[in-house]
Each structure stands twice: as structure tokens, then as C-alpha cells.
Amino acid sequence: MTRQTTDLDTISRPAAPALANLTQATAIEQARAVAEVQAAVTVAQARPRDTQRAIAEMRDTCGRMAMASRAFYSVPNRGNGPTVHLARELARIWGNLDYSVRELRRDDEAGESEVMAVAWDQQANVRSSRSFIAPHAKMKGRERVKLVDLDDVYRSNQNTGAKAVRECILAVLPRWFVEEAQDVCRQTLNHGEGVPLSDRIAAMVRAFREQGISAERLEARSRKKRGQWDAGDVAQLGIDFVSITRDGVDAESLFPEQPVTIAELGGPMLSEGDPA
Predict the structure, then answer these.
(1) Cα 7 from Cα 3, distance rounded (Å)
(2) Residues 193-227: pLDDT tens digits?
(3) Residues in contact with 25: Cβ distance below 8 Å, sequence separation at least 6, in sequence order
């Protein structure tokens, strides 16, 4: 006898649970990350920062030329302000503050990476983050040049991420703490740990001359006559000098051989033998 089937006869078994895209290693890593966060908060609350100690250490650190000379940046048409070096140092001094830059995704076909920067005050539970798309390109003049070399892409992402983490750190640090640090750094630059500015300028010119870079090229770089240089100009030239002598940056890229007109410098130029 033929039996006709109905919908009631075709009641299916309960579907087997779908396999989660979660490996044992991933689960362990997630659990470890959660435990680390909980431990960090517990330690921060158990050992709160000593604000007076942080202020004293900040003043001592920013009172040294090694820090003050790297505390500020100034880029034509891009602004100026505290550098990521100062932000990281203040984060270390303030304590109970964690920050990081992570490359979340890289798409070589689209020529872009997704990067995230985070700063987290574990004691106050204040967090700031920036997530953005970083194109694999750089500006050459007014044209965008695509980056192909993997090291160039890495350095570009790190450079962009450093700018973002600087903003995150400065967002969670107390404003008064950052402002005082900048004031101390400016005072250090102006006084030069007891060395007069004129002596530092003369020493800077001599050091560059030994590298084959004339005072005229330094003036072109700063767009000021040597007699108009201030402490910030000397500090920037010091950073350039270290980049050339220690980091291997091409001197021609920072100090190109090009004529400088009197109009560009705002007056008659000083020769290397003239006093600053």
C-alpha cells in the first residue's frame, strides 16, 4: 500500500549547531586578553599614581635638552605642537596609562590599510581611540605617489599611527600636565641647560659644516637668516643633524642645494664668518 507523505511526516530533526569560527587558540587568546584587562585595572586601582611624583619627574625630564629638543614639531602648512616623543614620555611618567597602534587590515590591491590607535587611562578608566584608513601613498609636491615597497608601506603606516596615538595620549592626559610640560621644554630650549643660544648656534653651524652642509643651506632650511634663528630653529636643526649622522637620512633631501634669494630670507644674508 502506497503511503502519501504530508508535511507532518517530514518533520526534520533539529539542525546541528553551526561550527563557530572560533578555534581553541583564539578562545584562549581572548580569555587571556580579558584577564589582562582585568588585572591592569585591579593593579591601577590598588597602586594609584603619585601625582606629585609625576609632576616632579616631568619637570626633571623636560628640563633636559635631550627631551626638550624633541618635544615640538613644526611643519609648513601642517601646523605645529607637541611631538609623539613628548606624548609617550608623559604617558610613561603619568603612569597607569596604556597606549598602542595596531594595523587591523592591509589591502594591497586597494592600496590601503586600516589602522587603530588607542590610549587608555586604566586608573581613571578614560579611553580615547582613532580608527582610520591609511592609503599606501605619499605626497610628492602636490602629486600622490603610490607606495609599492613593503618597508615603505610599513613606515608610512607607523608614521600615520604615531600621529594618531599622540592625539589619543594627549586626549586622556590632564591638560594642565601637558601644558606645564611644554612650558618647561620651551624654557629648556631657550636656556639650553646654561649654554647661551649664540654659542649653540655657532656649534650647530660648525657641526653641519663638518658634514659638508653650509650655513646658507641651513638658512634655506629654516627660511631665516642665521641671526634670526631662535631656540626652536636650533632644536629642529639638531633633530635634522641626528637624522643625517645617526639615522642615515640623505642630507640632500633635508638640505637641497638651491639658491636662496635675499627676498626669501627677508634681508641681507650673513656669511659663515660673520657673528650670529
Answers:
(1) 13
(2) 778 888 889 999 999 999 999 999 999 888 889 88
(3) none
Tell me the one-letter amino acid at 39. Answer: A
Q: Answer whether residue 57 shows pLDDT above 80.
A: yes
Confidence of residue 146 (pLDDT cuts 50, 70, 90): very high
What local confidence, expressed as pLDDT, does residue 76 receive? Answer: 56
The answer to whether the beta carbons of residues 96 and 121 sit under 8 Å apart is yes
For the chain, the helix, strand and coil percentages under 3-state DSSP, each to the nearest 5:
55, 15, 30
Closest CA to 104 of 127, 130, 139, 125: 130
Task: Dump pLDDT digits (tens) for 170-191.
Answer: 999 999 999 999 999 988 887 7
Q: How far apart are CA 203 and CA 218, in angstroms?
A: 13
Angle between helical axes of 231-245 and 197-210 (0-180°, round to 10) = 30
Detail the DSSP E strand segments found in the chain: 72-75, 79-82, 97-107, 112-121, 126-135, 137-140, 143-146
Cβ partners under 8 Å of residue 129, min gap 6: 116, 117, 118, 119, 168
> The pTM is what?
0.69
CA distance 91 to 99: 8
- Residues 67, 106: Cα–Cα separation, whole Å: 34
For the CA atoms of 76, 117, 105, 144, what is the dihedral angle to 10 degrees? 0
Query: How many Cβ atoms are within 10 Å of 101's Cβ, its own excluded?
Result: 19
Res. 266 pLDDT band, cuts 50 70 90: low
Q: Distance (Å, rounded) from C-alpha 229 to C-alpha 204?
A: 11
Report the distance separating Cα 119 and Cα 170, nearest Å.
9
